[in-house]
């Protein structure tokens, strides 16, 4: 028997209405998953700056997906991180991020999180101990994330 609602209408939950509501609900769930923000799937990566590794970034080369973040942590020593000219993501950081003198090398124990939204290559270096591609430098390769597979719901 159809179930009445508070407006005097009735719906047959066992027939076509049920099937339509089931499909609509399934589509809503699928759309919500597909439209979820990139940060829902993002990964945070860690790069050690200087100590205990000396005048290096560890790891020196990192492969990540667009939308991921990288936490740079200075373990000791007078260091900063600055993106190379032409990098798809730009930054100049140490205790804070910004244009010089903000972000200049600092011996303080600092940590900065950078979001990499654009696919491409981001070279970076410590201004005191390196230059683009030499000395204390690193590379982050940012790729397009793998898309979710699509499927149909019966």
Architecture overview:
This protein is of the alpha+beta class. It has two helices and eleven strands. The strands form three sheets. It has a five-stranded mixed sheet with strand order 5-11-10-7-8, with no helix packed on it. Strand 10 (120-131) and strand 11 form a beta hairpin. The chain starts with a strand and ends in an 11-residue tail after the last strand.
The share of residues in extended strands comes to 35-45%
Characterize the largest beta sheet: strand count, sense, and whether it forms a barrel: 5 strands, mixed
Total beta-strand segments: 11
Query: Main sheet: which strands, in order across?
Result: 5-11-10-7-8
Task: List the secondary-structure elements in sequence, H or E.
Answer: EEHHEEEEEEEEE
State the helicity in percent bands.
10-25%
Structural class from helices and strands? alpha+beta
How far is the first residue's CA from the last residue's CA?
25 Å
Output the radius of gyration. Answer: 25 Å
Average per-residue pLDDT, rounded, comes to 80
| Overall 3D form | elongated
Total helical segments: 2
Low-confidence stretches: 9-13, 15-39
Mind sketching the topology for me?
Elements: E1 3-4, E2 10-11, H1 16-35, H2 38-41, E3 44-49, E4 57-58, E5 61-65, E6 69-74, E7 81-83, E8 92-93, E9 111-115, E10 120-131, E11 134-143
Labels describing this entry:
5-stranded mixed β-sheet; 11 strands; 154 residues; alpha+beta
